[in-house]
């Protein structure tokens, strides 16, 4: 696998763009389109929130019931959540318009929205926006960047990743983009993610791989403990690389495909966590030597979501008691008197707890390590060989300011 520059236009046959249509009433881009010249096998995962947006309902139907998908229309600024029958009808109208413009069936068009909950989409300008988007579609990396910019809300940076890999002698490319900064929590953390590849693969195999990988990537990030109404990750595979089709986990090239998808999802997840609202630091938590994977996940999530621990990371304070405390209320069974805790960053590594009590560590050295980004906390529970990693960010003054002013 080779890491390359790019996003959703990195793979063969995919075009994209992003523009401002006026949803946000300013000059920021707020509408994007991704299009494949050929039909795509499609997989998706969605929010577990019982209050889910109209585009989530629409996309579930397309992913689960349509033979293929070929385009995605995305807007930022309005979530189209809690909008009733009108919201779903608006998804249908957008899909119909995109299908007409692109000469594809409406049920091959996926719809995604992000922004303020409870408002109806401004359909007049969005329907016109679809016509404009179609005319601007391009396959250059810069076209993918325009799309990545258009899906941002409180994000401060575009989030993209891309790789190439080999399948039985055939070069395959995979790229993706995502958005997410606030209202981020496990079980489909608040986000939109779109991954494109020219791989030829059977739909059921793609879906199974995506569902498994989500559990270790996007479901292992948290910024603020809020799970959204719109969380969606979609993968479109158009087969234009020309590889022998991957039809099972035993197919040649499946391992390389899985590793590529895992890398893309991991990188995008980390970009979301590191760009948490108001964040100054990506906070990574590794739990090692756990009795099983589930125990490691529970413990790492509990630490990364602890508001007190996140505040300590912001203050560059090696307040390890908050980490041990968060482990203690996680519901996971472990012996706190056997736990070792380390902090690690580009400035070095320091052991601050051994067997549940503080070591004779230097506060100055710990502060130096905690002043970098990313910062990693490692908790060794000495119970087995399992491990898990969770990602989050520090909790800063700006988080409150951003969310207090979100609609104003």
TrEMBL record:
EC supergroup of this enzyme: transferase
Catalytic activity, reaction form: N(2)-acetyl-L-ornithine + L-glutamate = N-acetyl-L-glutamate + L-ornithine; L-glutamate + acetyl-CoA = N-acetyl-L-glutamate + CoA + H(+)
Pfam families reported for this sequence: ArgJ
Active site, renumbered: 190
Site entry (Involved in the stabilization of negative charge on the oxyanion by the formation of the oxyanion hole), positions: 114-115
Site note Cleavage, residues: 189-190
Localization of this protein: Cytoplasm
Keyword terms, alphabetized: Acyltransferase, Amino-acid biosynthesis, Arginine biosynthesis, Autocatalytic cleavage, Cytoplasm, Multifunctional enzyme, Transferase
GO cellular component assignments: cytoplasm
GO BP of this protein: L-arginine biosynthetic process; ornithine biosynthetic process
Self-association and partners: Heterotetramer of two alpha and two beta chains.
Family matches, as HAMAP family: ArgJ
PANTHER family: ARGININE BIOSYNTHESIS BIFUNCTIONAL PROTEIN ARGJ, ARGININE BIOSYNTHESIS BIFUNCTIONAL PROTEIN ARGJ, MITOCHONDRIAL
Entry similarity comment: Belongs to the ArgJ family.
Purpose: Catalyzes two activities which are involved in the cyclic version of arginine biosynthesis: the synthesis of N-acetylglutamate from glutamate and acetyl-CoA as the acetyl donor, and of ornithine by transacetylation between N(2)-acetylornithine and glutamate.
Name recorded for this polypeptide: Arginine biosynthesis bifunctional protein ArgJ
